[in-house]
Amino acid sequence: MADQYTIHFGILGCANIARKVSRAIKLAPNCTLSAIGSRSIEKASKFAKENEYPDSIKVYGSYDAVLDDPDVDAVYIPLPTSLHVKWAVLAAEKKKHVLLEKPVALNLKDLDIILEACENNGVQYMDATMWMHHPRTTQMRGFLSDAHRFGQLKAVHSVFSYLGGDDFLKNDIRVQPDLDALGALGDVGWYCIRAILWANDYEMPKAVTAWREPEYNEAGVILSCGASLRFEDGKQASFYCSFLSNLTMDISALGTRGNLRVHDFVIPFQENLGPFYVTANSGWVGMSIGCDPPPTEHLIKTDLPQEALMVMEFSKLVKNIKVNGVAPERKWTSISRKTQVVVDAVIASIGKGFVPIEIN
């Protein structure tokens, strides 16, 4: 079995995002990449060579072979969303801990199948929403919790968009209905919804209403959409996600005493530095010619990129299970499930003519 202090990862598939996560595994001090598997040995070998993996890494021509490897403790699954149920469940049944790329499932029913398999087999589950693990996120949470500087949350707005080129919009997995049918909602909308839930300390909205006129490709996959969320006590939220507009990654949270803004929440513009901006207890100056105090910039440094911090946290949880015999941490299960509930509500609202979908 794997060394008790080092968690050995296997990766199912050679998706482009797997390059980034395999680098993260290399950078993280408490885990190592042990195996890579693809649908063919040729593709897996090519991927290993292109990413300069050491010769010690096992290269397999199937996903099953990775799951059958006794030295693999955990698997990262970057496969198309339509394949998540099959391979995440098999991984759990093989007692492999599951780090699952987002969107984690096409719908809540599928996600619950995955989560039940992880629960029944005592394995750790986490979705690969990387920005959750940046130290900036903890610092921003502290500001939102500051009653004197931020006050009570009143509204959250989030945007994540990027401009996909012609080839992307025709051929990428994320626009293929049989692979990733959620399109932009699943790929970039997932982050926006997570940001709204995070800002609300994971309180669920009472209702979700999709915006009219979402944009689709010829195959019926969403290329852009948005929605409004209504919470208790009059709190409001909205998001917009798109493959059709310039790169934007914003969160804006408005409180009774202050506000928070971040312009690169998904992937920091600088890998080792995460800025955010706050305004607290500000008022007009003179003839409304300025505000005092002005917004302040906070620069949060990190020695490791957020994706490395993510695999470090995941590996720490896996070690606690394997070495210390503790139960899996279910916080990540709850957060994933809440995000999926809102994704499903947006789809339901669109399908029912943009009516509000109540969430119980």
Automatic annotation (TrEMBL):
It comes from the Eukaryota. Residues 7-126 form the Gfo/Idh/MocA-like oxidoreductase N-terminal domain. Pfam families: GFO_IDH_MocA (PF01408), GFO_IDH_MocA_C3 (PF22725). This is Gfo/Idh/MocA-like oxidoreductase N-terminal domain-containing protein. Belongs to the Gfo/Idh/MocA family. It comes from Lithospermum erythrorhizon. Residues 146-260 form the GFO/IDH/MocA-like oxidoreductase domain. GO terms for molecular function: nucleotide binding.
